[in-house]
Every structure is written in structure tokens, then in C-alpha cells.
Amino acid sequence: MRRSQPLRETEWTLRPADPAAGPRTIGVIDARVPGCVHDALIAAGIIDDPLRNANEAAARWVGETDWIYETRFTLDPSAADADRVELVCAGLDTVATVFIDDAEIGRAASAHVTHRFDLRGLASGEHALSVHFRGPLAAARAEERARGTRPVNGDWGPYAYLRKPACHFGWDWGPQLPTAGFWAAPVIETWSGARICHVRPLVRTATPEAATIDVHVDFAHATPADRRVEIRLTGPGDAVMDADALIPPDAATVCASLEVPAPALWWPAGYGDQPLYSLVVTLEGDDETLDAWTDEVGLRTVRLDTSGDESGTAFTLLVNDRPIFAQGANWIPTGLFPRADDAERAASLIAAARDAHMNMIRVWGGGRYEGHDFYRACDRAGLLVWQDFMFACATYPEEPPFPDLIEREAREQVARLARHPSVCLWCGGNENILAYRNWDGWRDALAPGQTWGRRYWLELLPRVTAEVDPSRPYWSDSPYSGEESRDPNDPDHGDRHTWDLRFDEVRQIVPRFVSEFGHQAPPALATWREAVDEPFALDGLASRRRQRAWGGNEREFVEPLERWFRCPPDHPSVHGLAQILQARS
């Protein structure tokens, strides 16, 4: 049976590769894993919290510095009996070299994939583990020097060269704090024979009379042998459906189908209930269970109607063949740094979205793929998830090693998330095709023949999603109009980002699907006071320093406040009126 040994979360240390890299000499400090460099430096009193006051600029050196995490662990003697012993790192952020007892065992170049490092031959007993992270700004700039400059949004550094959350480098809603560290604690896994990699329960049909679910099980083999997979689906009323399949020695995937009579169908919020079935998959060897997997799944179908009509093409999501009017919001990371309470914060926000009568969340492409707790909360709340791949507002290189790295990421994330009934659509990313086609100077800024990412959104990602999860639609980018020849933001085709029209002007067009729109507002005063020591004022230094949107406070607040409320920027009620302004928009 596969066994996992999480490495101790609090017994880690951190140090810069160069002790003199910062504003003062830094030695070894305590660190937590999961966690990141910034949090460790804050806890040690080396930097002030960069989210408070004007501390962001003073922490810029952190992202330019190489860092070393270290710990010690004990390998159990039983590991010697296993066919495989692996150090498993999910969410290794980002460019890293991993050492055991000063011997290199592997390298990482993406925060969006799981890394497995072979520990076979390692003796039982205590060992030293160290992970050397390149400073993300330094790593991205090195790639840029080697491969050439390319357009990205804002002044946020060449983030398109790293497979890490783009928003770490800054955004119009957040600070520039590229960090390094771990989103999850590394785990030592031991297993023999074979293990389950992913389970993809893809619903083929679902009606009130019957449903068919094709359960695809992906494996890794340590030794060749005939094996068997057993599948059990238990319904809300304790109805049980079983299936099994033989696994040939060289098979990476098997599929078994389950027929479910009179299924309890899963619906988005406002359209019905969200019943969930228990799915258990076991991998059996000759005389023992080698691995097991369990989770909750929902029975529903989903498709995207893009058929033509008298004024363009539709963009209508149908669940169980019923058209859904999408009501929701875009989801950015709940924080730039890993937190112990990330799952609880996400669940609270999902519950608030449901209470606000939302039925869809778009996981935006400038952040990260969320953990299963997030998607399970959406499954239970009935919030559909539009899932972007992690590309945003940039031109991306298509030269090696990036295509292989991105295909690996896409295959893993689609297979990982396919279990969740809330996930309804795969999307290539955020404002990439739009930027290349419509943003001033972007195409001219590319060197002749320089790639920009088209291959990913229009070739690689649709191919991967069709192979790994044909049960859900794929959309090339957001916004996109369905064809390269059209303006990606055409209101009569596809989805649209409406930032070019404001307030009552948005009524001038009726897009098929608005996937982004809105207006900025200042935070609650309690939030402001927690982050900033000076009073809130539109013309204050703190407000201007934290304003990252194009046009600044003048465009976001001063002009519309004068237009709608005849309110000068120094009016005592300016904070509340600015929030009302957002509500009216």
C-alpha cells in the first residue's frame, strides 16, 4: 500500500545563498513549510510586512535574491522494502534545485506541476534536505537576457518566462512581491507494484432516467504485472454501483463505465440541488491492495452552445441540457503568500458568493490552480467554475523547454480537477490573444519571428483537454470571439471584457457573455486602517501609492465622483460615496 510521510512543517530553516544580499547581513532563520520567504523574513523581524504602509518597495530585494530552505528527516527502514521511494513536492515555487545530503537529486521549473524525485538507494536513518531557490526576479531576467524582451502588462518584470503566478510580479489590484517557497509540505512516498496517479470520472450522459459515468484511472507502474482496478459508486440514497477492469502490464490508463439508474443530478445554485456520490477506486495486486482513491463526484453534463443566430453566435452554457444564466465573479488568489488558513478563507468566500446569489466563479489566469478544498466548496455550494489556464496579459515564449513544461502542467491539472462537477469549462487564459491583437504597440514590440503563445491557446491546450477530458468544453482565451479573424472582444461573439465602457455606458452594448467588468472601490475603512497608518484620502500619499490601475485615482474616483455626486475629492463622505460608485457601476 502506498504510504506518505509529510516532512515536519515547523522544523525548517531559511538563509540567503549570499548572506550579504539584503540591506544587512542575514544568517539562518526559522521557517515554516508550507510558507514562503517573505513570511519567514517578517517573522524574523528582518523585513516589515510589505502589505502595510510603504513597506513594499523596501522588500524588493527579496525577489532578486537566491534562498536556501533546509531541514532534516528520518527515512524509515521499511522504505527499503518498497519498489519506489520518492520525495513528492506539489507547489514548489518555482525555480529550484533539490539536494539530499549535499547531492543533487533534481530540479524544478514550474510551480504548477507536482515534482517527484527518486530516493531509491537512500539508506534508512537521518538525512539533510535542502532546496535552493533562484530569486524569481533574477531567474526571469536571466531568461529575458537569453531569449529577448517581450511585451507583458504593466511594469511587472518578465513574468512570462516563469511558470509561477503572474500576479506575484504585480497587477492593477496588487503589489509587486515575487516570492519563493512551498505551497504544500513535501512528502516522502513509498509504494510498490503500481500506484494511482489520477481518477477522471467523466459523465457521458445524465438524464432523470439514467446516467453513464466513464471512470478513467491513470497509473504509474514500478514493476510489470497484471493488476485489477475496482470501482464503487455510492449514491445519496445508498444505492451502490460497482465495476472493475483488468490492467495490462503496460497500460497507463484503464476505463470502466458505470450505469446509474434514476440518478440524483447535480445542478448549479438556483437551478436545483447538489447531490454528491461517493466514488472509491482501489488498485489490487495478486494478494494485496496497492493503492486507493476516494472523493465525492456529481452527475451532470455540461456543454457550450456557440451556434450562429441572426446577430452573431451564442455563448450559452448548458448543464444537463438546460441553459444557465451565469451570475458570478472572477477569483484571484486569496493572498499572495501561502497561509495555514487558505482552505478556510476560500470556503468562507465561496459561501458568501452563494449567499450573494452567484452561481459561477472564474478562476483567473494570472493566479494559480486552487487546491481541492476550493473546488469541493464549489461542488457543495453549486458554484460552476470557469477554469483558466495560467496565462495572463503577456506574450509567451514557445521555444523549448516551455511547450513540454506547459503540456505537462495542462495534463496534470486537467486530470487532477476532472473529478469536480463544479468545473464546467477550460479556458486558455486571460487577455493574451486580446493583448496581441488589440493593445497598442504589442505586435510591433516583438522581434521578427518571435513567438507570442498562439500555439498554446489554439493548438496545444485544446488538444490536451480533448484527450484528457472530452466531457467539458474548451475556450481559447478570455475574451475571445471564437475565430482568429474576429476582434477578440466582439460583443456579438464569445465572451467579452467590458472595461472600455463605464457606468451607464455599459448599456450601449449587450454582449453574449461578460466575463469581466466592474469598477474599483476603496476597501472597508477597518481594512484600510489595518494596512495603512494614515487616514484615507484620495489625494493622500498612501492612496496614490497603492493605486495601480491605469489612469490612477483621477480616472477611477475623482472624475466619476464629480460627475455622479458633484463630490470633490476631499469631501468627508468620499470613502462611502466611492463604494456606492462601485455598486452603481
| Total number of domains | 4
Helix run count: 13
Low-confidence parts, pLDDT < 50 over ≥5 residues? none
CATH topology of the largest domain: TIM Barrel
CATH class of the largest domain: Alpha Beta
Distance between the terminal alpha carbons, to the nearest Å?
56 Å
Strand order of the largest sheet: 3-2-5-11-8-9
Structural class: alpha+beta
Percent of residues in helical segments? Answer: 10-25%
> What is the radius of gyration computed over CA atoms, rounded to a whole number of angstroms?
25 Å
Mean of residue pLDDT values:
96
CATH superfamily of the largest domain: Glycosidases
CATH second-level architecture of the largest domain: Alpha-Beta Barrel
Beta-strand portion reads 25-35%
Based on CA inertia axes, which overall geometry fits? globular
In total, the number of strands is 32
Question: How can the largest sheet be summarized?
Answer: 6 strands, antiparallel
In short:
By secondary structure, the chain is of the alpha+beta class. Helix content is 22%, strand content 30%. Helix 4 (342-355) runs parallel beside helix 5 and helix 12 crosses helix 13 (574-584).
Structure in words:
This protein is α+β, with helices and mostly antiparallel strands. Helices cover 22% and strands 30% of the residues. The chain contains 13 helices and 32 strands. Strand 28, helix 6 and strand 29 form a beta-alpha-beta unit. Helix 12 crosses helix 13. The protein is globular. It starts with a strand and ends with a helix. The mean pLDDT is 96.
